[in-house]
Design goal:
Strand content: under 5%
Number of domains: 1
């Protein structure tokens, strides 16, 4: 589900960029809808994925870390997006080009996140979680 939401959001970003290039309002609206639905599905399923990969007894810590990472990433993205849009708009005198550039960069980052998400293996995490760490194995060997 996280990948489906991510691909939907990526398509939304691409449609928004395309609408800026072609000045097509209908494509823009379709892109905004896809972006909203895609990021909604992606956010909820990413949180569920994070909870599925949480070590028992540390759920609160992981939820806090996820919340903090999410908030900081939104802050950095908003600030950097605003700076990028303002710079491009000031340099070119074209605000549409500024927004187009920002949404294009966001599409690129979404593609990178989807590539990274494809490498996440929940089953391997659960398998590794059940095995004792090197320190635990050394302690067990020392007791023998």
């Amino acid at each position: 589900m996280a990948a489906w939401g991510g691909w939907g959001a990526l398509l939304g970003f691409v449609l928004i960029v395309f609408s800026g290039i072609t000045f097509n309002q209908s494509v823009f609206y379709a892109g905004v809808v896809l972006l909203g639905v895609g990021t909604g599905i992606s956010t909820v399923s990413n949180l569920a994925l994070m909870l599925d990969m949480t070590v028992a007894g540390q759920v609160g810590l992981f939820i806090g870390a996820w919340g903090m990472a999410n908030a900081i990433s939104r802050l950095i993205g908003s600030v950097m997006g605003g700076i990028g849009r303002d710079l491009v708009t000031q340099l070119t005198g074209n605000s549409v080009l500024g927004y187009t550039l920002v949404f294009g960069v966001m599409a690129g980052f979404m593609l990178i996140s989807l590539i990274l998400l494809a490498r996440v293996d929940v089953n391997a995490f659960h398998k590794a979680e059940g095995q004792p760490s090197v320190i635990e194995r050394a302690a067990i060997a020392g007791d023998a």
